[in-house]
Amino acid sequence: DTLDKARDIELGTTSDAKDKLKLPSSYFDAGNKTNRVFHDGYSVINFGRADGTGMLTQNGTTNFTDKVNILQGQSTSTGGVTVNGTINTGGNDFDVSSNTVTIKNSHVTTTTGNVHITTDNLVNDTTSGQNTIESTGGGSLTLTTYTKSKSINLGSTTGTGLNIDNAWFNTDDGTNGLFKGFKEVTFGDSTQTGGVKIGTIDTTKVTN
User: Fold this and answer.
1) Distance between CA 206 and CA 166 in Å, rounded?
2) pLDDT digits over 40-88, tens only?
3) What would the 3-class secondary structure string for 160-198 be?
4) Which sign does the torsion angle of CA 59, 49, 138, 191 carry?
5) Distance between CA 175 and CA 56 in Å, rounded?
6) Model pTM?
7) Residues near 97 by Cβ (< 8 Å), separated by ≥ 6?
8) What are residue 94's DSSP bridge partners?
């Protein structure tokens, strides 16, 4: 993470900006024999800080061989996470936690690894095309709110709380379909005090 909580973090393909913490994909890629810095064996690789007020942005393609935990801007309205590229974690879990998580021009893939997204605002930005968060080997998906008192609104785009569009689970939707291949999907957890409101999600299309 950063010493300055306001500093932005770039992961993957990095820019020439000098005021950001830059972590090129080559630092983690098992296929890069020259520039790899962080090798196998970590129980988890953590990026960011909960009180960070800067943005964490992932671009390009990043291949991980360990569990990934992105934690940035949980408790602030200015910080956030944007996944704007391709992330592959193989059989390892992918967790992201932030006040706002934006998925744009993005493809996140695990094989048997699980995906856990904790946020009060999940944005599926399709202006650059369809996004996918996918398990190809039967992993699980969990969606929880950062603010435990907020509700999860299934099938809603306008409610107060974490809104989950029904189209995100429709694997026939070539534009808005987001989640694919998970053996199970869990909404909320035992620490959440807000409700789970069920709208118009078609459960026959939750997995492919």
Assistant:
1) 9
2) 778 999 999 888 888 999 999 999 989 999 998 766 667 899 999 999 9
3) CCEEECHHHHCCCCCCCCCEECCCEEEECCCCCCCCEEE
4) negative
5) 25
6) 0.89
7) 50, 69, 70, 71, 72, 74, 117, 118, 119, 146
8) 68, 115
At residue 23, what is the residue type?
Answer: L
Pairing between strand 162-164 and 100-104? unpaired
Q: Within 13 A of 173's CA, how many CA atoms are on the CB side?
A: 21
Query: One-letter amino acid identity for 137?
Result: G
Q: What residue type is 30 in one-letter code? A: A
- DSSP 3-state assignment of 27? helix
Q: Provide DSSP, 112-144.
A: S--EEEE-SEEEEE-TTS--EEEESS--EEEEE
Q: What six digits make up the tokens of 179?
A: 């989640």
CA distance 199 to 196: 10
